[in-house]
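Standup notes
- HV: blocked on the assembly model, inputs below
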Amino acid sequence: MAVPAQSVAVPALSSKLLAAALLSVGVMLLLAYLVGFDQGAVSRSGMYLHELMHDGRHLLGVPCH
Amino acid sequence: MRTFGSLLVRGLVVGLFAGLLAGTFAYAVGESRVDAAIAIEESGGHAHTHAHEEDHHEDPLVSRDGQRAGLFLATSLYGVALGGLFAVAFTLLRRKLRTGNDAYAALGLAAAGFVGIVLVPFLKYPPNPPAVGDPDTITRRTVTYLLTLVIGLLAVWAGVALSRWAARYGEVARLAGGVAGLVVTVVAAYLILPRINEVPETFPATLLWQFRFASLGTQATLWLLLGFGYAVAVDRRPIRSKVAAA
């Protein structure tokens, strides 16, 4: 039943690839945190960025005040 | 074959594009609902006032116009982040997806992401407009929201695993297994997770749901464009081979 997995576009798994993937995930999660949850601790802008992105946070479904 | 860098950059670019258009949807459909909710908030439609809201009212750090523009910043950055995560997921999971077609693989991943990250959290904890929500419970609501997101992804995984196992009993069993794995995980989690309802009694139900569907639409726009955009981006042959083929 199982169709042999064909890979067309991705590089082979290697420790180098995993390290790059892990680093990317970290950076992306930090960025998502900045939009969704940060209140100045990461952005170092006080509440400015938090307030600026207020409507986006609500409409992206993140819980807010 | 594409390098990881090439796959990642495609995800970031597609994510930016999807985020901008999701922002446009949110601006067109959602902003008037946010405004209406803020009007209720400011008319004292509900009792509690607190520091965060007072920031809004008396000495706004960012004007309403600023927040309307900031909407695009938020959806774009969020789109870039999701696009990057999507690219990593595509790179690591591509071999596990049983299709020889990269575009179908991208669409399948986007559908899975939408169900796990958007739909499952939405059905348990539907998003709320301004004027709804007790600031004292924000930590609890944030944690439960993130939990539903993780559970959503686990439920999708359970569905896929069960459908692959059930496939030996035929096509209908494969589909039924997928649905069962997903639904049973989600329902069990919904029963265990706490019920949270902070909508004031007097808050208009129509406005509440208009806002919620605007939020769902914003996220659906983001994931649709992410899926189709990445399908196109990853499918594109390098320009050189096109020239060679011509």
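- HV (later): unblocked. The first helix of chain A runs from residue 15 to 36. Helices of chain A lie at 15-36, 48-52, 54-59.
- Next: hand off to the docking folks.
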